[in-house]
Fold:
Amino acid sequence: MEKVMLDAEQREVFKKGGCKHLREEGKIPGVVYKAGKKGTSIHIDAKALGQALHTEAGENAIITLNISAGEKPSKKTVIVQEIQRNPLSEKYVHVDFHEISLTEKLKVSVPVNVKGEAVGVTEEKGVLTQVLWELEVECLPTAIPEHLDVRVEELRIGDAIHIEEMEAPEGVTFLEEPETVVVSVSPPAAEEEEAVVEEEGAEEGEEPELIKKGKKEEEEGEEPEKEAAPEA
Structure:
């Protein structure tokens, strides 16, 4: 697992508008949390944060925060707990860190990467669907996988890979339900639509036929109306 160093500065809790001023200066407000303790308010350089989160480890990178706080600087080992972004610009708005111990297990979500081309796609023209993009795991911080690879070359139409069929890296425990589907191969969309149309057509065709038949029998059983005899 990649380790990253980040400089941060302890800050006072601002009133409304204070954080906006920080962002205009290229800094991102944040909080460092630890179970059972009050959070420490900080701010960090936006570009430095972006570089730290664009390593192979992504948001699961182990970060050492060098926090300057007057005459009492400190170092904290953390991982990202939550990042808030502007929905329009995608720029960072706020970041929460979780202080960790390298000797205590934690729960994190790890990206799932599909590797290879399924024979059900290349030869049978099926459609491969990745159902699960992240998998929650439990492990020591130093054992967090950067990603989990799933090989799909042998998948044919109708096949699927479930979590229970994946091999967990050493020291890592999967926390999702074992029967959860990770990736599957289904028939081509055109074939699926054709099968549905045929099935619906068969179902719809049966009932009208019965109605028509009943109507015909009813018509055959009716006697034609006789014209009334002219009055004398």
User: Anything to note?
Assistant: The longest helix spans residues 189-221. The radius of gyration is 32 Å. Residues 53 and 169 are 23 Å apart (CA to CA).
